[in-house]
Design brief:
With 163 residues, the protein is an all-alpha fold. The chain has one domain. Helix content is 77%, strand content 0%. It is built from six helices and no strands. Helix 3 runs antiparallel to helix 4 and helix 3 runs parallel beside helix 6. The longest helix is centred in the first third of the chain and has 44 residues. It is elongated and about 45 Å long.
């Protein structure tokens, strides 16, 4: 009887591993597509005005910012968009885990993921641009917080999918 139960657990574990692998196979192309779209948007419209009737030259205060490169804002757009995609998958994963286990710890992970998702959404230059703001003057500090958040999210995703 014990041998039958252990075989059943092994099959369940294999199915769980297959679903996790499928999740990663789906996630990778979505991440690549999101990165390409964000980079294309940032490279083509970041310094362009929000409305077609506005002049197309940069405001004078932007050109006076020392050490401010468009590369940092383009990279920030890409990394922030990747953070949004990863956080969406993590939130879906945690909601599925909560549906199965009803664990209070999982509720904490859902709240944590939601708060980080709101952070990623509001720090994304696309959202800033849609609201009429143009970030400038930060240089490499425009990109560093997003890179640290991305590294933490990759580790969190890896651990969530592995276990």
């Amino acid at each position: 009887m014990e041998k039958v139960e252990k075989e059943g657990e092994g099959m369940e574990s294999q199915m769980n591993q297959k679903s996790r692998t499928l999740l990663l196979v789906i996630l990778l192309p979505i991440l690549v597509a999101a990165a390409i779209l964000a980079a294309t948007w940032a490279a083509s419209t970041f310094w362009q005005p929000r409305f077609p009737w506005m002049p197309r030259e940069r405001p004078s205060y932007i050109t006076r910012a020392p050490g401010d490169l468009e590369f940092f804002y383009t990279a920030r757009t890409v990394v922030s968009t990747l953070n949004i995609v990863i956080l969406t998958f993590l939130l879906a994963l945690y909601l599925d885990i909560y549906r199965k286990t009803r664990s209070e710890f999982t509720i904490g992970l859902i709240i944590f993921s939601t708060a980080l998702l709101f952070y990623a959404l509001t720090s994304n230059p696309i959202v800033m641009w849609l609201c009429g703001f143009i970030p400038f003057g930060l240089g490499p500090f425009a990109l560093l917080p997003e890179l640290f958040t991305f590294a933490a999210l990759v580790v969190l995703l890896y651990l969530s999918v592995k276990y």
